[in-house]
Each structure stands twice: as structure tokens, then as C-alpha cells.
Amino acid sequence: MEPFKGRVCVTGASGFLASWLIKRLLLSGYYVIGTVRDTGNDTKLAHLWRLEGAKERLTLMRADLMEDGSFDDAVKGCAGVFHTASPVLSRPVSDPKAEILRPAIEGTLNVLRSCKKNPSLRRVVLTSSSSAVRARDDFDPNVPLEESCWSSVELCERFQIWYALSKTLAEKAAWEFCEESKIDLVTVLPSFVVGPSLSPDLCTTASDVLGLLQGKTERFEWHGRMGYVHVDDVALCHVLVYEHKDAHGRFLCSSVVLDNNELVSMLSARYPTLSIPKRFKALDRPYYELNVSKLTSIGFKFRSVEEMFDDCVASLMAQGHLSPV
Fold this sequence. Notes:
This protein has a single domain (about 5-195, about 230-255, about 290-300), classed as 3-Layer(aba) Sandwich (Rossmann fold). The protein contains 14 helices and ten strands. It has helices at about 15-25, 40-50, 55, 70-75, 95-115, 130-135, 155-160, 160-180, 205-215, 220, 230-245, 260-270, 295, 305-320; strands at about 5-10, 30-35, 60, 80-85, 125, 185-190, 190-195, 225-230, 250-255, 255-260. The protein is globular and about 55 Å long. It starts with 5 loop residues before the first strand and ends in a 7-residue tail after the last helix.
């Protein structure tokens, strides 16, 4: 472990990515304040207390995205704040504006208002998404998407792509607030996150991968073409852009972009005993690539798609979600 590096806050601490981020911050020598909605939920939080360094340098505090000022105490005295908490709903919603958009946007602004009150603050790192870049209908398939691209709000509203809309509007609101408030903000835009889950409770994305490995196609059918990235790489990326003094702006974080059929071809060859679908029906989705040179130019190296799925499959088997191969 490295020497003590200071105090940082991670919102949504029990989440898939946040748990890995806390693991990496603790291993790097930080004192971490994690926010959760219920500090008394021992079952949901047990995996965090098992992390190396947690007993000495982890504190969990209650905070709620929709409660004004509830992050004040958590971010107080922190040099860095990592805002990862955001709604990801797997079920159909009756009121997407109330259930997805408002928590994402207002929750982000609520965290940032608390950050503004904190004189110790050095930098905020916000977890956005590649879906804040790629939901658009006007790009050239020969030119990879990069950080200057934004998803079309009009397109997202027209096709009811609520997750992409929530990430786009929340990130735009964050940039506007931080520019007005002179807060040093960096945003990380991961593609579809794959890898081992530290918590036995699977998040939406991990459940989707489990379903695919068990032969269920419905959650992947709408992907068509998708970027993939290892969860630990996303965590390491957050730490890198926090620590790198010349890191500014947005950072796309993705290892590879694959069509559904390229993905299942690789997976079925790698795990022949699993019930992976052989093919998906063709979707009329635009071809795109993601340009991640901004991140690799500051020294970042991504793990392969094979490694992220190997780690994911091993984790799902170890936790009993998937029968051993």
C-alpha cells in the first residue's frame, strides 16, 4: 500500500462500479467516505467492509440523492469527490421523468451544491456514460466518436432512450454548475461495464450479462453494437483522472466496440458449455467506434474483452449465480 493520500468521498458506495473504485482508492492509500442510503443494511454493505484497508480507512455515511444538503457532511474535508450514484432501472417505468431523469439531474446538482460548500475540494470526478456521446443520428461511421460529441436530447426523447437522456442531461447540468461555481470537474464516460461483482447482489448490467450467458437475449437485443470495458479499468480510470494534474474535461473509457453477433461468437467459442445464443437478429443500428486516445495518451491501458468476460464468468460461478463449466 502507498502512503496516505488524503480524504475522498464516493457516492453510491455499494454499487457495482463504486465498490471497485473504493477498493482501488483504499489500496492506493486514500481515506474514503462512502455514501449509502441505508448505513444499517449490513447484508448490502458487507462486501465493502471486507476490502483491504476498509477497517482503518473507510467510513460509510447516509445520504440520499433527492435530499437537499444530505451530502454536506460526507464531502466536508474531502479533497476529491467521485460521484458515481445514478439510477439504473431494469424494470419498465411509469414516469421516467420522476424515476430516472429527476434523480440523475437533481441528484448530481445536490452533490455538487455540497461540494461547493467544501473549501478543501480539489477536484470532482463524475461518472457519466458513453451513452451521453453515441445516441445521435448525424455522425459519420468512418469517424470514431470522441469527447466533443454529445447525444441528441431530441433523439433520446423521441425514442424514449431514458438512460442516455438522464446521463446526457445530468452531465450537461454538472458542467454548467461547475463552470459557474469554479469547481474543477472531470467526467468519465464508460461503455457497457463487465467484470466481477464484489457484491453478491448483481446490478442491472451484471444481471444482463448473466442472462446472456444463460441464453436469454432480450436485454442485449437492443444493444445492436456496444462498447465494453472491464469494471476494474473504469475504477482505475477514475483514480487516474483524479490524480493526473493535466486531466481536464471528458474521458471516454472503453476497451472495444462489438456488434452483438461478434460478441456471442467470441463468447460461445470461449464457453462452449454455456447456453449462449448463437446469433442475434440484425438491427438497423449505425456502425460506430469510440476514440479513447485522450485516455490512453495519459498512460492508460485497457484489458481485453476476453479478460473482462473471463473475470465476470469466474465471479458469477464463485457466487453461485452460474453453474460451473
